[in-house]
Known about the structure:
Blueprint: E1 6-8, H1 17-35, H2 41-50, H3 59-68, H4 75-87, E2 91-94, E3 99-102, E4 112-117, E5 123-126, H5 129-141, E6 150-155
Parallel strand pairs: 4-6
Antiparallel strand pairs: 1-5, 2-3, 4-5
Amino acid sequence: MTDRSVLSDFKPGDHDHEACVAVALDTASTVCRERGVRLTPLRRRVLELVWRRHVPSGAYDLLGALRSDGRRADPPTVYRALDFLVENGFVHRLESLNAYVGCGGPGRAHNGQFLICDSCGRVAELEDHAISEIIREKADALGFHAGWQTVEVIGLCGECLGRV
Ligand SMILES: [Zn+2]
Ligand SMILES: [Zn+2]
Ligand SMILES: [Zn+2]
């Protein structure tokens, strides 16, 4: 049985990554159409660039890639596109890395837990309600109302550990 709280696992090197990118772009187009918001060519391209790898990209990497496409982009352009993609639930910003990664369960805002490999940089994404709930309860006990939660765990993936 697969664990449905795993939105994205550590993808092996030989997986069909073109399929990952195609699904991410298709989902984004459909969701934007349903919401009546525009997935402009720039927003789409930034999403595609974030999805180049399962490794988070920094805004300046993305800016460099847009410029090598021949686009005249400046940092605010990239940040605006990224804000749109984050708000619409297509990408996540990982605070510990100050970088962006494609969402494994796109199209809706959600709490997430991210496992970040310190060696290869790849990220797995979980959306485990039991984890969110226990954090909420612990916060409640301190009189703290928990709002948004993003849990970022740094470690080593199975491939880097030689376990898979
Ligand atoms: Zn992939
Ligand atoms: Zn997500
Ligand atoms: Zn790794």
